[in-house]
Amino acid sequence: KATIVGSINLDTNLRVHRMVKPGETIHGKEHYTAAGGKGANQAVATARAGSKTRFIGAVGNDGPGEQMLDLLKEEKIDVSGIEIIQNEPTGQAFIPIDDNGENSIMFYAGANYAFGTEEVAKNSSLIETNDFVIAQLETPIEATIKAFEIARSKNVKTILNPAPGESDLPEKLLKLTDMIIPNETEAETITGIEVNDETSAKKAAAKLHELGVEAVIITFGAKGAFYDFNGYSELVPAFKVKAVDTTAAGDTFIGYMIATLEKDFSNLREAILHGNKASSATVQRFGAQPSIPYKNEII
Ligand code: ADP
């Protein structure tokens, strides 16, 4: 049902009492690796939601690359569109987390930036025969534009999660986007309109509609998710839960929403409710992919 064009990272997490200062060496308390990258997280979420999921992206010819491919295969994701790049390593992020739960992230995009229009074109059949194509901004924009052009030519719906936020998104990309899903901060970065409530979200949505985007969804963390589509708009409230770690909340929301969504977006509100429900489970658990729930856990 969905083809994801996006990033794959190996996350190396190190829990520390406090952040290290320049020139200093400190002991870590705990060390663990996990699969990450917004593309891979969203693919895992759509797959766990019970949707057939395909991936177009790249890893390096190295141990982390093999590990990431195995993890995605375990989730029954079609990895035939993942290229193995020879001269770049698999994307990696290094994440110290201190006792206050605060983190910093240093990453090297590696293979994620070494695939472009050619690799997407080679895998066009993975897009053409599907309902949706989903992309984020952790891989080259030209590759996303190519994927969206292929999708449009075959009446496949295009969905953009503009994360991490970027202020000068090419107009060409927005014109090719059917649905955009930013969070509050990203909505503000793209439109230049401060987004903090329903009224301001509506203004930002109007601007995005003007640029050619049919459906606008803005996620509002613990407040829920706002949509503006086909003349209707509403802030659909989040589920009240005690959050311990909001990592991958947005990725879970997107995966579960897309897994429920009809191709013509006619059941958008129901799909958002499903996204809210699933991501409320994610925020009650630690980590990125380990915290994304399986369909049978969402009742
Ligand atoms: P991102 O992780 O991309 O910044 P948000 O923080 O907006 O995305 O969260 C995405 C969705 O996850 C929200 O729309 C909401 O449904 C759910 N969510 C996030 N934080 C909470 C929370 N504290 N309690 C319940 N649901 C939450």
UniProtKB/TrEMBL annotation:
<dbReference type="GO" id="GO:0019303">
    <property type="term" value="P:D-ribose catabolic process"/>
</dbReference>
<feature type="binding site">
    <location>
        <begin position="250"/>
        <end position="251"/>
    </location>
    <ligand>
        <name>ATP</name>
    </ligand>
</feature>
<feature type="binding site">
    <location>
        <position position="138"/>
    </location>
    <ligand>
        <name>substrate</name>
    </ligand>
</feature>
<feature type="binding site">
    <location>
        <position position="247"/>
    </location>
    <ligand>
        <name>K(+)</name>
    </ligand>
</feature>
<feature type="active site" description="Proton acceptor">
    <location>
        <position position="251"/>
    </location>
</feature>
<comment type="function">
    <text>Catalyzes the phosphorylation of ribose at O-5 in a reaction requiring ATP and magnesium. The resulting D-ribose-5-phosphate can then be used either for sythesis of nucleotides, histidine, and tryptophan, or as a component of the pentose phosphate pathway.</text>
</comment>
<feature type="binding site">
    <location>
        <position position="287"/>
    </location>
    <ligand>
        <name>K(+)</name>
    </ligand>
</feature>
<keyword id="KW-0547">Nucleotide-binding</keyword>
<dbReference type="InterPro" id="IPR002139">
    <property type="entry name" value="Ribo/fructo_kinase"/>
</dbReference>
<feature type="binding site">
    <location>
        <position position="291"/>
    </location>
    <ligand>
        <name>K(+)</name>
    </ligand>
</feature>
<feature type="binding site">
    <location>
        <position position="251"/>
    </location>
    <ligand>
        <name>substrate</name>
    </ligand>
</feature>
<dbReference type="GO" id="GO:0005524">
    <property type="term" value="F:ATP binding"/>
</dbReference>
<keyword id="KW-0067">ATP-binding</keyword>
<feature type="binding site">
    <location>
        <position position="183"/>
    </location>
    <ligand>
        <name>ATP</name>
    </ligand>
</feature>
<protein>
    <recommendedName>
        <fullName>Ribokinase</fullName>
        <ecNumber>2.7.1.15</ecNumber>
    </recommendedName>
</protein>
<feature type="binding site">
    <location>
        <begin position="219"/>
        <end position="224"/>
    </location>
    <ligand>
        <name>ATP</name>
    </ligand>
</feature>
<dbReference type="InterPro" id="IPR029056">
    <property type="entry name" value="Ribokinase-like"/>
</dbReference>
<keyword id="KW-0808">Transferase</keyword>
<keyword id="KW-0119">Carbohydrate metabolism</keyword>
<dbReference type="GO" id="GO:0004747">
    <property type="term" value="F:ribokinase activity"/>
</dbReference>
<dbReference type="InterPro" id="IPR011611">
    <property type="entry name" value="PfkB_dom"/>
</dbReference>
<keyword id="KW-0630">Potassium</keyword>
<feature type="domain" description="Carbohydrate kinase PfkB">
    <location>
        <begin position="1"/>
        <end position="293"/>
    </location>
</feature>
<keyword id="KW-0460">Magnesium</keyword>
<keyword id="KW-0479">Metal-binding</keyword>
<feature type="binding site">
    <location>
        <position position="276"/>
    </location>
    <ligand>
        <name>ATP</name>
    </ligand>
</feature>
<dbReference type="GO" id="GO:0046872">
    <property type="term" value="F:metal ion binding"/>
</dbReference>
<feature type="binding site">
    <location>
        <position position="285"/>
    </location>
    <ligand>
        <name>K(+)</name>
    </ligand>
</feature>
<feature type="binding site">
    <location>
        <position position="282"/>
    </location>
    <ligand>
        <name>K(+)</name>
    </ligand>
</feature>
<comment type="subunit">
    <text>Homodimer.</text>
</comment>
<feature type="binding site">
    <location>
        <begin position="37"/>
        <end position="41"/>
    </location>
    <ligand>
        <name>substrate</name>
    </ligand>
</feature>
<dbReference type="GO" id="GO:0005829">
    <property type="term" value="C:cytosol"/>
</dbReference>
<comment type="similarity">
    <text>Belongs to the carbohydrate kinase PfkB family. Ribokinase subfamily.</text>
</comment>
<keyword id="KW-0963">Cytoplasm</keyword>
<feature type="binding site">
    <location>
        <begin position="9"/>
        <end position="11"/>
    </location>
    <ligand>
        <name>substrate</name>
    </ligand>
</feature>
<comment type="pathway">
    <text>Carbohydrate metabolism; D-ribose degradation; D-ribose 5-phosphate from beta-D-ribopyranose: step 2/2.</text>
</comment>
<dbReference type="InterPro" id="IPR011877">
    <property type="entry name" value="Ribokinase"/>
</dbReference>
<feature type="binding site">
    <location>
        <position position="245"/>
    </location>
    <ligand>
        <name>K(+)</name>
    </ligand>
</feature>
<dbReference type="Pfam" id="PF00294">
    <property type="entry name" value="PfkB"/>
</dbReference>
<keyword id="KW-0418">Kinase</keyword>
